[in-house]
């Protein structure tokens, strides 16, 4: 029990530390649409807040979170100016699964794959779903581990907050 509490406390502390405005890593990710590697910190539009969902094809909560964000995104964009993207943490051999899943869902936003988990290590997280908000200056200002139905409303509140700054 003590080990579980210590692990949870460590996760909370590391998430809080990440939320203290961290620079984006230049770790390469693969753009699934262009099939080219690009530095993660170059995937963001300067001056615009960005919501990023890290997910995997085998992760049911990840898929629910993305589905619920997509369901709300048009309404959210009427109140806040932001971009949205996803990064799959699936292995390289699952790239075709990522591509076909995204197409079957009609994704019309950028999506990338971190095939060797370098970006996961750079951002210091181990499990998905994992969500970050990047501010207008390209800094990670918010992180969230896991997904619970309805928690996307908290994300939107944060997006609005950082869009106004």
List the helices and strands and how they pair.
Blueprint: H1 2-18, E1 22-23, E2 28-31, E3 36-39, E4 49-55, H2 60-77, E5 82-88, H3 95-104, E6 111-113, H4 118-123, E7 130-134, E8 139-145, H5 152-164
Parallel strand pairs: 4-5, 5-6
Antiparallel strand pairs: 1-8, 2-3, 2-6, 4-7, 7-8
Overview of the molecule:
With 165 residues, this protein is α+β, with helices and mostly antiparallel strands. The protein has one domain (2-164): Glutaredoxin. The chain is 39% helix and 24% strand. The chain is built from 5 helices and 8 strands. The protein has an 8-stranded mixed sheet. It is globular, with a radius of gyration of 15 Å. It starts with a helix and ends with a helix. Mean pLDDT is 89; it is low at 2-19.
What separation lies between the terminal Cα atoms? 41 Å
Name the helicity range.
25-40%
Superfamily (CATH H level) name = Glutaredoxin
Radius of gyration: 15 Å
Which sequence of SSEs, written as H and E, runs from N to C? HEEEEHEHEHEEH
* Beta-strand percentage range: 15-25%
- CATH architecture classification name: 3-Layer(aba) Sandwich
Number of domains: 1
Largest sheet: spatial strand order: 1-8-7-4-5-6-2-3
Label the structural class.
alpha+beta
């Amino acid at each position: 029990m003590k080990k579980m509490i210590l692990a949870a406390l460590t996760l909370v502390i590391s998430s809080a530390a990440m939320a203290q405005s961290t620079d984006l890593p230049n770790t390469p990710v693969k753009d699934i649409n262009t099939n080219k590697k690009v530095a993660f910190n170059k995937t963001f539009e300067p001056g615009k807040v960005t919501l990023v969902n890290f997910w995997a094809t085998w992760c049911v909560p990840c898929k629910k979170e993305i589905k619920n964000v997509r369901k709300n995104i048009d309404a959210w964009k009427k109140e806040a100016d932001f971009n949205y993207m996803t990064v799959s943490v699936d292995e390289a051999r699952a790239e075709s699964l990522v591509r076909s899943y995204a197409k079957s869902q009609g994704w019309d936003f950028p999506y990338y794959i971190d095939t060797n988990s370098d970006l996961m290590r750079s951002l210091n997280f181990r499990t998905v779903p994992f969500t970050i908000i990047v501010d207008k200056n390209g800094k990670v200002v918010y992180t969230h581990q896991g997904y619970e139905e309805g928690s996307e409303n908290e994300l939107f509140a944060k997006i609005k907050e950082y869009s106004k700054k």
